[in-house]
Amino acid sequence: MNDRGNIKWASLMLPEHVKMLQDFFEEEDTVDPSILSEDDSAEMEHTIQEAIHTSAAIEIDFKDNGTYKKTVGTIIKADLIGRQLNLLTAQNNKLKLRFDQIVSLRFHHK
């Protein structure tokens, strides 16, 4: 069966409705910033320090321009005062993340 998708309904929709639907689906891909509790923040800092000392790979879920992303890498540098993390990803790219971008992090198990 050959489905024409939205094309068959386009003649029944006003251009304003089409624009509104496009905006809706665009916004659906974004997320609101999450706020970590003090306990979560302390646990995150502890995991960061342990990962630095053991040179262990970590998995990080973070926000970038309102969307969730995930990466695996090792910590090159952690600035606990400036609240910033420098990573070397598994693809050998350098990545800088602010702590307020990080949603969660954990040790990476292969």
Automatic annotation (TrEMBL):
Pfam families: YolD. This is YolD-like family protein. It comes from Gracilibacillus caseinilyticus.
